[in-house]
Structure formats: C-alpha cells, structure tokens
Amino acid sequence: MDRSEIGVIGLGIMGSAMAKNLARAWHDVRVWNRGPDRMQELRESGCKTAVSPRDMADRCPVALVMVTDPAAVDAVLEGPDGWFAGKCSGKLLINSSTVSVKYACGLAARCTARKVRFIDAPVAGSKAQAQAAQLIFLTGGEKAEIEAAKPFLLHMGKTVIYAGAAGNGSALKLCINLIIGQMTSCLAESVTLAKTLGLAPELVFETLHASPVLDCGYFRIKEKNLLAENYAPAFSMSNILKDVKFMLEEADARGQNLPVTAALKELLQRGCDSGLRGLDLSAMAKTLEGLKK
Ligand code: NAP
C-alpha cells in the first residue's frame, strides 16, 4: 500500500490510540467521530478531520472503522452521510470493531456488491496495547489484500494473524475474548472468595506471581483494578457483554452449548443492569459484591 491518506472512523478508547500511532508514523491521517469533541485531541496530534464518513470515503483510499458494535458500524456506513454514500468504489474498508461472524460475513458481501475491498480485522489487546502499538490484528479476507495492508496495520500493532476468509478474523476474536472474559471472572471470583474467607486478596496475586505457570501479564494488569477497586474502563462491561452474546449466538447457531460462557453472560448482564456498563470488565468483582446473601 502506498503512503496515501488513511481514514480512521471512531475515536473511542481504542480508535483514538490507534489513530495517534498512525499519525506518528504515517504522513496523512484523517479522522471522524460521531461526537465532535473527541476529534479535537486528534487534531492536536496532527490528524485532519472529515465532516462525515461520506466525506472520508470521498477523500481517503482506505478507511479503518473502530466503533462499538454492528449497529454503530451500520450507522457510519449507511445513510446519506455514511461511508457507502461517498466515492467508495475500489477503496479499502477495514473493520476493526468487534462484531459477530454473521455480521462480518454480511458486511463482506455488502462491500463486494459495491466493489469495495474489505478486510475483517478485529484486534486482540486493550487500551495499553493500543497506546503502545502492540495490538494483534486477527484478519480475514483476501490474503494478498491483507499482505498489502500489513505495513500500515503494523504502525498500530505488532502482529497480523491471517485466519482465512472474511468472517474468520471475527470468529478468532470471539475465541480470544472468551478467554479474556473468563480469566477476568476467575480473578474476580477468586478475590471475592478470598475476602469471604477472611484472606487479604493480595495473597492471591502474590501466589500467582510466584508460580512459574500462573504468572501472566493479563492478571498483573487486572490486579491493579481489583486491589484498588478502581474500575476506570480499558475494556467496558457493556462491550464484553456484547461479545459474550455473539459467542453464545454463534455457538448456538451451530448446535454447541457453552455453559461457562452462558454463566458469564448472566453475571455481566446483572452488572450492566445495575449501572456498571461503562466500567472496566474487572467490575465483575463489584457485581459479585451485590450477590452476597
Ligand atoms: P468506546 O471507547 O466505547 O468507543 C466506541 C466508539 O464507537 C466511539 O467512537 C463512539 O462514538 C462510536 N460509536 C458508538 N455508537 C455509534 C454510532 N451509533 N454511530 C457512530 N459512532 C458510534 O469503545 P472501545 O473500547 O474503543 O471499543 C471499540 C471497539 O473495539 C468495540 O467493538 C470493542 O468491542 C472493540 N475492542 C475493544 C477493546 C478494549 O479493550 N477497549 C479491545 C479490543 C477490541 P462517540 O464518541 O460519539 O460515542
């Protein structure tokens, strides 16, 4: 891919960090966000702005979308100001938002119908990895297209994994987030049990760190949230709940039960319903406090 203008649509926790890294490495980055306030910070980082996703399609040969969910992706692509309403034919659309496999496959077909090139490219890694350009892109689509996009993707990440056809990037992302969701619930329940048994929760982490097999970077990141009971979001309760619902729907559609993931969904739903949806997923621990008899 030549060094032509790149567009980033969606400047939340992940998109803003990704756009900043691109702006550091790439000569021309243009951004758009639904809420205009978030664009100011990116202007200060050297990005240009678009007035709409449609304007972005008119100006940039490549657009990367990083918004909440399928409804948000549709909102930026469809309608009179949507990306598809612009001069999108022949251009490259990269979706890094976490969506269902069904949605990713449907989006690939919508792109083909409009002669848009498409890469299904959700990411593994959270806020800290996005800031440090250490994301892992989990990609699906035409292999040659993904190879050509690698130099650009690697300004935001460290690895590009090729999973096969469009839809497989999203499938792999759901498999990885299943582990993230369950690891977080394991930590939250363990800390809750420790407190219930009269133990200092620090002892749980001291033991994990001392173990040659259980000491892991993810546990170390979430330790800070859990011990300080500080749930400022890196990855929100509502976004992991969205992903867990996709896991269950995709498995169910193929006749597979995932009982532990189903229990995780109940816990997350309870947390979101009790006002915690904007907090970090480690606020599962706060949800568990509400389950004390
Ligand atoms: P976030 O901070 O909540 O940001 C969400 C973004 O989506 C914002 O830019 C928001 O715009 C936009 N948006 C939501 N609804 C929209 C709509 N109807 N129309 C237009 N824009 C809309 O979320 P995030 O953590 O960056 O996550 C973004 C995506 O990456 C999600 O799919 C998430 O599951 C995935 N992901 C997150 C992480 C993580 O650790 N945070 C890691 C990997 C993947 P406004 O500013 O206007 O609200």
Would you mind describing this structure in some detail?
It is a single chain. This protein is of the alpha/beta class and 293 residues long. It folds into two domains: 6-166, 3-Layer(aba) Sandwich (Rossmann fold); 171-289, N-(1-d-carboxylethyl)-l-norvaline Dehydrogenase, domain 2 (Orthogonal Bundle). Helix content is 53%, strand content 13%. The chain has helices at 13-25, 37-44, 53-59, 70-77, 101-113, 127-131, 143-153, 168-196, 202-210, 217-228, 237-253, 259-276, 284-289; strands spanning 6-9, 29-32, 48-49, 62-65, 92-95, 117-120, 123-124, 135-141, 157-162. Strands 1, 2, 3, 4, 5, 6, 7, 8 and 9 form a nine-stranded mixed β-sheet that branches. Strand 8, helix 7 (143-153) and strand 9 (157-162) form a beta-alpha-beta unit. Helix 8 crosses helix 11 (237-253), helix 9 (202-210) packs antiparallel against helix 10 and helix 11 (237-253) runs antiparallel to helix 12 (259-276). The chain is globular and about 65 Å long. The relative contact order is 0.10. The mean pLDDT is 97. The chain binds NADP nicotinamide-adenine-dinucleotide phosphate.
What is the CATH third-level topology name of the largest domain? Rossmann fold
Structural class, from secondary structure content? alpha/beta
List SSEs in N-to-C order.
EHEHEHEHEHEEHEHEHHHHHH
Strand content: 5-15%
Mean of pLDDT: 97
Number of helices: 13
What does the radius of gyration come to?
20 Å
Query: What ions, cofactors and ligands are bound?
Result: NADP nicotinamide-adenine-dinucleotide phosphate
Query: Please, what is the CATH homologous superfamily of the largest domain?
Result: NAD(P)-binding Rossmann-like Domain
Overall spatial form: globular
Using the 3D structure, state the CATH architecture of the largest domain. 3-Layer(aba) Sandwich
**CATH hierarchy, class of the largest domain:** Alpha Beta
Secondary structure: helix percent: 40-55%
Q: Kindly report how far apart the N and C termini lie.
A: 59 Å
Low-confidence regions: none
Counting DSSP E segments of at least 2 residues, the number of strands comes to 9
Tally of domains: 2
Q: Biggest β-sheet: count, sense, barrel?
A: 9 strands, mixed
